[in-house]
Every structure is written in C-alpha cells, then in structure tokens.
Amino acid sequence: MGPVDFSFILHPLSNEDIFRKLRFMRNWPSSLVERTIRMLPPVWTSRITGVASPHNSVEGCFMGVFLTTKQMLQLPPEVVMRKIIIAGKKAARAGAKIVGLGAMTAVVGDSGLTIDRNLDIAVTTGNSYTVATALEGTEKAAALMDIDLDRAEVAILGATGSIGSTCARILARKVNFLTLIARNTQRLEKLADNILDETGLAVKVTSGVKEAIRKADIVVAVSSSAESLIEPEDLKPGAIVCDVARPRDVSVKVSEKRDDVLIIEGGVVEVPGDVNFNFNFGFPTGMAYACMAETMILALERRYESFSLGKEMTVEQIDEIKSLATKHGFKLAGFRSFEKALSMEDIEIIKKRARANLPAFVAAR
After folding, report:
1. Count of C-beta atoms within a 10 Å radius of residue 30
2. Does the 129-267+335-364 domain belong in CATH 3.40.50.720?
3. Who has the most CB within 10 Å: 31, 36, 46, 54?
C-alpha cells in the first residue's frame, strides 16, 4: 500500500471501546485494564479509502491512542500529549501531511497548539467544521419543531471551550435570548463582554447547569465532561438538544424516558465518494464526525496547514471551512439521535407529544 494523505487520531471513549478491540481484557479489573493500556503505544488502526470529490481524491488512516476519556482527563496533560505526538509522528512516517485530533485528543492541554509545535505536519482539531455543522443542524431542527429563533431561549453548555465560545458568538447574531453555561464564571463573564461588544446582545451567564437547561428551548451541548450532564428531568417538552460532546453530554436515559424532546447528534456529515473507513465507529457507511471531515476537506483542498487550533476560532474560519465543504461535496447527514437515524415522521411524533405534555410542565412550574 502507498502512503496516505491525511491521518486522524482516535481513542477509546470508555473501557467498552477497548474490549471491542482487545476482547481478552473484558474480565479484567478496571484498574488493571487502565494500567495496561496506558503502556501500549499508539497503533495504526485502519486505512481510509475512497474519499473523492469532483476536484480531487485522497486516502488516509486512523491512528489509535490507547487512553480512555477518563484517563485523558485525569493523567498529567504532558503524559497524554506525549502519546498523541507519538501517534502524529507515526502518521507522518506513513506519509500523512495533515493530522486531525479526535474527541479528547483535541481538548487536552492547549487544544492542539503544543502538538502542532512538536510535529512536522499540519494539525487540526476539526472544531471549525464541527461548529458549522452543529449550528446548521440546530437551525434546521428548530424550523422542523416550529421553534422561532427570535423568541427561543437558547443555552450553550460548555460555553467557554473552543467550540462553545464560537457557537455563542455566532448564535448571538441570530437569537435574542442566550444563556452561557460553564464552570468558570470569570471566563463566562469575559466571553459575555466580548459578545456584547461584537453584537450588542446582553447574554446571561451561569454555572448552574440544571436550572438553565430546564428553561431552554434549544441547547447546544459542547462540554468536555467525562460524565453526562443532562438527565431526563432537565428538559422541557419540545426542547432541542444538539449534543456535540464526546462523550455525550446527554444521558442515554433521556432516549429511554423522554419521547417529547429532540436530541440530535451534532457534527455528523456525509463524506463524498465511495468511502471505506475499514473501522466501525458506530456510523452507517459513508458518514463521519465533522471533526474527521475537516481533516479530509483540507487534504482534498491540498491545504496542508494547521487550521483549527487553540481555544479561539473566528467566524471567518467557520465560513471558510463551510464553503470548502460545499465545494467538495460534504453535507449534513440528516438527523441522528443516539446513533439511530431520525426520520421526518419521528420528528413529527416528538412534536405532537411535546405539545401534549407542555401544559402539564408549565403548570408544574
């Protein structure tokens, strides 16, 4: 096989993801599993073929770093970044000219800046295209659920992160009632001041997740929490949650207990060409996370330059990557919820149940 054009770094979100690859570990104590995988080097996971637009075609590979989300949050950042850098160097030796950071590899430390400094190839977190697709999906979902953006209460969970702060700045131009949620209130206040200067919109800020979520018609969830933050009782009937976070911010219990809210996975796109990832990450054939897609888009464009890095992104970046995605044939992959496709009929049913349940919810408050 010849060299690849791009690479994308993956990691297991939990021990269950490890057991799919290393089945013999399933009956081991969790502490032993974690100690063992911490010692494993990054590995070539699979070759990506068939990514083709009307303008170009590229091949890539997945590189796997054996650290779970929990470990990435608990281990010293320098330990985690060392593993990611080793994976990036392996990708470079395979011919990759750009590497994308997936899930927590894009969050740990300084959001790719240190990794970029330690590699001789371009690095991107994919955050720009993640923002573009998340907001596009949220606006389409709002229209389908008959939610007027002008009047809607909109909340961003994880608002001080790279994705969250950019979502906030873009949404502040489109909505009138915006609440920013994060742990660090000082950073929230600074972001709120910036938004007021840029758009004239005075936004609310809070570290109280539950109270803010319960009032929201629309939630964009982009925290970097290792645990789910949104439970079934936290959402009003008819609420939309665009869950961009991995691991999810929305508990799986919501899908089991709430049939009157719309939960969509942010940042899922159709990849052009007869693509084969040769690796199962839970999506149907030809679909990928937007962060993965950004790496492919830049490779197709021969833009071998670091694109989305650090905690700050610009609205111009979002517009540019969205334009390049359209050029090369990437598009929003409909709606998915907890790894299942949502039809228009499904959304209509949710809308009807929400209308039936809303009066009781209002009365209870």
Report:
1. 11
2. yes
3. 46
